[in-house]
């Protein structure tokens, strides 16, 4: 039986995780995907990294995002969406964009800086219609896929010496 290839292997990072000290996650409205990703990375790596999130446009807090993160013991209920233009600091080692709009804005923002940009196309669960459980399942799927991707990109454990 053939081995199933790792779907993330094609995304070889340009910057080694040990060289990264600041990460920006970006999506369209900064209300679901990017705050979830930022909270997950903070949860895993604590204060070892500076982590922020932004959107192309400002969105409203999403109660489904808060609910599925709370299931993991992570509170994002106080998150307030902000745009790229509202960022206090734009000096990041890595910008991870989670939507095509955010990818374009991230490339524009980093055109004149020494910052890498990675595109992790991530489904927007707010498009799912149905009852509460159906919608929560979509949000959990996004949360879990972001968690898997973050664990792969920012491995836990001792930091290798470069």
Largest sheet: 4 strands, parallel
Spatial strand order of the main sheet: 2-1-3-4
SSE pattern: EHEHEHEH
Class from helix and strand fractions: alpha/beta
Low-confidence stretches: 1-12
Number of strands: 4
Rg, nearest Å: 16 Å
Task: Give the helix level as a range of percent.
Answer: 25-40%
Shape: globular
Helical segment count: 4
Q: How is the quaternary structure best described?
A: single chain
Provide a descriptive summary of the structure in words.
This protein has about 160 residues and is α/β, with parallel strands linked by helices. The chain is about 35% helix and about 10% strand. It is built from four helices and four strands, in the order βαβαβαβα. The chain has helices at about 35-45, 65-70, 100-110, 130-155; strands at about 20-25, 50-55, 95, 115-120. Strands 2-1-3-4 form a four-stranded parallel sheet, sandwiched between helices. Helix 3 links the parallel strand 3 (about 95) and strand 4.
């Amino acid at each position: 039986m053939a081995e199933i290839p790792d779907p993330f292997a094609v995304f070889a990072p340009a910057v080694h995780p040990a060289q990264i000290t600041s990460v920006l996650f970006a999506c369209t409205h900064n209300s679901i995907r990017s705050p979830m990703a930022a909270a997950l990375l903070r949860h895993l790596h604590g204060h070892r990294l500076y982590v922020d999130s932004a959107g192309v446009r400002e969105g409203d807090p999403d109660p489904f995002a808060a609910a599925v993160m709370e299931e993991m013991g992570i509170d994002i209920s106080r998150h307030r969406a902000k745009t790229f233009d509202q960022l206090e600091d734009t000096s990041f080692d890595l910008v991870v964009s989670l939507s095509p709009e955010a990818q374009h804005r991230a490339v524009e923002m980093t055109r004149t800086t020494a910052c890498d940009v990675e595109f992790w196309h991530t489904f927007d669960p707010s498009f799912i219609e149905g009852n509460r459980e159906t919608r929560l399942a979509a949000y959990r799927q996004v949360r879990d896929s972001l968690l898997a991707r973050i664990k792969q990109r920012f491995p836990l454990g001792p930091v290798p010496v470069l």
